UniProtKB/TrEMBL annotation:
Belongs to the TO family. The lineage of its organism: Eukaryota, Metazoa, Ecdysozoa, Arthropoda, Hexapoda. InterPro entries: Haemolymph_juvenile_hormone-bd (IPR010562), To_sf (IPR038606). It comes from Drosophila hydei. GO terms for biological process: circadian rhythm. This is Protein takeout. SMART domains: JHBP (SM00700). Pfam families: JHBP. The gene is LOC111604632. Keywords: Biological rhythms, Signal.
Length: 257
């Protein structure tokens, strides 16, 4: 058996739109939120119903719950630096717009209060990402250089997220904070188009786009850790604020209270 050692440098920098704190002195959960009890035998059914009743509002965002508008989801900036395997890249994506999030299918939503575990599995038939990009580096030994607009279309992407919380006390109330988030995803196809590669050399740019689209599978495995880190950071940004604003008993009260 041969063992390979990869020296991997993965860096993701994200600028996430921070939502203004909702108006009003004390944070109160919005009345439209269906409250679920953590010791109810119907917890998971309730959680699913609660999620489904929020879905129409997700499009425009729910500031009371620190959830940004989801259709489209806008991220001012994502930085990705990778130096591993066949990819050596410095890249910045600005004004990232992700559409297609509202058309999803929820497979699994489960809460295990004894482990403070929240699990969610969801499929998006298509997600379209549009942004300004700036890339410099090498992909599979080929130089890669460009800045302009890019578009990426992902087909049939299934994402499974598991979040583990831990308790701490703040102002006499028990709050949760994120101990760990695990994200996994599978996708069926990727199509991308990067405009203005190689200072606008159309022939070279087209060849690189063709190459990327033909090899998306192995490339997507290479960038997977980076993508997962980006997804985790996006989720963290909202959930941390939600957990900080509302105590555990407010978010998931006990029937015995
Ligand atoms: C749903 O999530 C729970 C908790 O992670 C897991 O035990 C279960 O297998 C999942 N079910 C499906 C259908 O994915
Ligand atoms: C989407 O991908 C999953 C595997 O991740 C597969 O089971 C399913 O059939 C695919 N759906 C479509 C509509 O292609």
């Amino acid at each position: 058996m041969e063992s390979k050692v990869f020296i991997t440098l993965l860096l993701v920098g994200l600028v996430i739109q921070t939502l203004a704190k909702p108006k009003g002195k004390s944070s109160k959960l919005p009345g439209f939120l269906k409250v679920c009890y953590r010791d109810s035998p119907d917890l998971n059914t309730c959680a699913r119903e609660s999620f489904e009743s929020l879905e129409p509002r997700l499009m425009d965002g729910i500031p009371e719950l620190y959830i940004p508008p989801m259709e489209p989801l806008r991220i001012p900036e994502i930085k990705m630096d990778q130096d591993s395997g066949a990819i050596y890249l410095h890249s910045v994506y600005k004004n990232v717009k992700i559409s297609g999030i509202s058309k999803h299918t929820l497979h699994n939503l489960s809460i295990v209060p004894s482990q403070l575990k929240f699990a969610l599995a969801i499929t998006f038939p298509t997600l379209k990402l549009e942004s300004e990009y700036s890339i410099k580096g090498k992909i599979m030994m080929m130089p890669m250089l460009g800045d302009g607009n890019c578009e990426v279309e992902l087909t049939n992407i299934t994402m499974a997220t598991e979040l583990f919380g831990e308790e701490y006390t703040k102002n006499g109330a028990i709050h949760l904070r994120i101990k760990d988030i695990e994200v996994k995803y599978e996708l069926e196809n990727v199509h991308m188009q990067l405009d203005n590669l190689f200072n606008g050399d159309k022939a070279l740019g087209q060849r690189m786009n063709d190459f990327l689209n033909e090899n998306w599978k192995s490339l997507s495995d290479e960038v997977r850790p980076l993508m997962i880190k980006a997804l985790v950071d996006i989720l963290r940004a909202s959930i941390d604020k939600l957990f900080e604003a509302f105590s555990y008993d407010e978010l998931l009260p006990s029937l015995k209270m």
